[in-house]
Amino acid sequence: MASDTYWSNYYSEVTQRGEGWLDYSNPAVQAQTLALCLESAGQIHGHPCLDVGCGRGQLAAMLRDLGGAPVIGVDFIEALVEEDRARFPGIDFRHGDACDETFLATLPPMDRIFAVEVLQCLEAATVLPRLWERLGPGGRLVCMVPHAPCPIVRRVRERMADRYHALDVAGAAAIAARLEGLSDWLVRGLTFGEDQRVAPYRTSAWGHDVQGVPNRLNLVFLKN
């Protein structure tokens, strides 16, 4: 990912604009997305946690405040990593590329790994198995990813061609089938509600499939 000039330029420009939510459409979407991912992770207290594509560090800070220890945040934009180190002392922020196996090998085993709104920049089928290797026994890999069949996502993919990635349930199931030591995997859909006064998304039940064409998929892969 870091070698992709497009994404490097894109996120460098977004960083300079100063929005707290970076790639989200607004802060309400970010808040609900992070809350749903924390819910997916189960127990945080006392567990080592890794936030891949940590952005401005909000999720990493939440993990720390919930008792995650240690908490590591990784991002490929060096300016963000430096900003996060200054804002959130006590969290181990590292500049690195989730596509780089050598870099991933430097990370310790973790109990909770998060890939939240970062897989559109990456090939999930390649990156998630590598992250899985860093997950300890009993751990969880939590993801939030654009849902490929969603019309909004399709339009973005058409505009950005092969730079923007998305996932469908069949693709998630295929990845799950390759994960050694998997005990189960689950998915739920996030769909923008007509009434967004309280929260932007409506969520479906957990299962191995979703109904309709939600905007996002929340995935959790559970390790034995």
TrEMBL record:
Recorded GO molecular functions are:
methyltransferase activity
Question: Which residue windows are transmembrane per the record?
Answer: none
Q: Name one Pfam family in it.
A: Methyltransf_25
Methyltransferase domain: residues covered: 50-139
Q: Which Gene3D superfamilies match?
A: Vaccinia Virus protein VP39
What does the entry give for GO biological process? methylation
Q: SUPFAM superfamilies per the record?
A: S-adenosyl-L-methionine-dependent methyltransferases (SSF53335)
What is the name of the protein in this document?
Class I SAM-dependent methyltransferase
